[in-house]
Design a protein that fits this description.
Chain lengths: 185, 130
């Protein structure tokens, strides 16, 4: 195990990973991760628009992980504590921008709907994507946490590119959802 | 009626709604995990204000970031103001955006396209952080 720490560091360094995290997410941890991303971006990126877009995408992706998650950690030592959503996030510096990768477990039954939503978003040019955002904003439907279907549309608008995604079946009820969002400069 | 004042933090904006002057301010960052919890008291307050509003109401929105969880809640705030305007009062939204932040300008335009209130887009140098 001990020699693998250096391998892990090397691998992350090679991939130009700015930040990576795997584990249980809480609102406080999301605040801390966003703070770290903001500080890193200030040193790395001179274009304020790109800095803001990366921050926005990371924020939406982390909140997606937090809200849409079926695998919740049961705290063995504090059985009364609320279970926390599990996820993985990695932000890497690319030659022409930044890559925001996230992964989380979701209900298998919702895979088809999410896939259709992402395909629809990927099929729209920028102006139609903006129109889709406006329609969804004005539709009067609230999700449990207020978002109401805007998250992925906003992520795609801030990215300016296509959303890369994948689903891996996990068990009979759930699947692992992976998302890669490129923010190009 | 009491004014509504909330201090901003890294996740929620500074709120300053003064019923005596009709001057309202929403400033900072709006990126909480659950925006409904944060915005419900603001919307309830506007409901009460709307019963006897000032002849002129102006809402200054100066956000550095807002998440999609906040988007529809902010629209709800505007809808309350739209209702106040519909009863014959003057209502304006002043949407502040940083000079380099075209995305924030577009977000303001998106609201202006949905809500029947005059929006003024105001370019500023830099939004104060928290």
């Amino acid at each position: 195990m001990i020699e693998r720490i250096h391998d892990l560091y090397d691998e992350l360094e090679r991939q130009r990973v700015m930040l990576s995290f795997k584990g249980a997410l809480s609102p406080d941890l999301i605040t801390a991760l966003l703070g770290a991303v903001e500080r890193k971006m200030e040193g790395l990126e001179s274009d304020p628009r790109t800095r803001k877009r990366v921050f926005n995408v990371v924020m939406e992706c982390l909140q997606n992980l937090y809200h849409h998650n079926t695998k919740l950690r049961e705290d063995q030592e504090r059985p009364d504590a609320a279970p926390e959503p599990q996820g993985v996030v990695m932000i890497a510096h690319m030659d022409r921008g930044y890559s925001v990768l996230t992964g989380n477990f979701m209900a298998g039954i919702e895979v088809e709907q999410l896939k259709n939503h992402l395909d629809r978003i990927n099929g729209l040019p920028a102006d139609a994507l903006r129109e889709f955002y406006r329609e969804t904003l004005a539709d009067g439907k609230f999700g449990r946490n207020g978002g109401g279907g805007l998250g992925m549309i906003d992520i795609a608008r801030k990215s300016g590119g296509k959303l890369e995604y994948g689903f891996v079946p996990y068990d009979k009820d759930s699947a692992f959802f992976s998302l890669n969002v490129n923010v190009t400069t | 009626m009491e004014s509504l004042q909330l201090e901003g933090n890294p996740k929620t904006p500074t709120v300053n709604f003064d019923p005596e002057t009709g001057l309202f301010e929403l400033k900072g960052r709006s990126i909480p995990e659950n925006s409904i919890d944060f915005y419900k008291p603001l919307i309830d307050w506007l409901d009460r204000y709307g019963r006897s509003p000032k002849a002129k109401t102006a809402l200054h929105v100066q956000l550095e970031y807002f998440n999609t969880s906040s988007s529809k809640c902010i629209l709800d705030l505007f809808k309350k103001l739209e209702g106040i305007r519909a009863t014959g009062n003057e209502v304006t939204v002043l949407w502040h955006y940083e000079a380099d932040d075209e995305d924030m300008l577009e977000a303001g335009e998106d609201y202006a396209g949905i809500i029947n209130i005059p929006f003024k887009m105001i370019q500023i140098e830099e939004v104060d952080g928290n």
